[in-house]
Specification:
The protein has about 100 residues and is of the alpha+beta class. About 25% of the residues lie in helices and about 30% in strands. Strands 1, 2, 3, 4, 5 and 6 form a 6-stranded antiparallel sheet that branches. A hairpin with a 5-residue loop joins strand 5 and strand 6 (about 85-90). The two termini are about 15 Å apart.
Length: about 100
């Protein structure tokens, strides 16, 4: 996906008034950058599934890639560091 993920502390979640989330860090060339996701974006959910860890993201990714009947797409919903909500469509197909 071209980036790393950092688990949020309970304090960070409280400050942002969210229950779950993972911060995007170390964005490099890859699917997330191609979709417009920038460093600091906090992923709240992917494909209607709440995200709390890197493992959650990996599990969702693997489910998408291993399902031959599903479009290879992640709908990522989250917030920017300034609190603005946003969403991104991440195309996982090789094209």
């Amino acid at each position: 996906l071209g980036c790393g993920f950092m688990t949020l502390s309970d304090t960070q979640k409280k400050e942002l008034q969210i229950r779950n989330g993972v911060e995007v860090v170390g964005v490099k060339d890859g699917k997330f950058r191609d979709a417009g996701i920038k460093e600091g974006f906090i992923i709240l959910e992917i494909n209607n599934t709440p995200v709390n860890s890197r493992d959650d993201i990996e599990s969702i990714y693997n489910a998408i890639m291993n399902n031959p009947n599903k479009r290879k797409m992640m709908i990522v919903i989250g917030i920017h560091p300034n609190g603005k909500e946003d969403y991104y469509a991440v195309n996982l197909a090789d094209n």
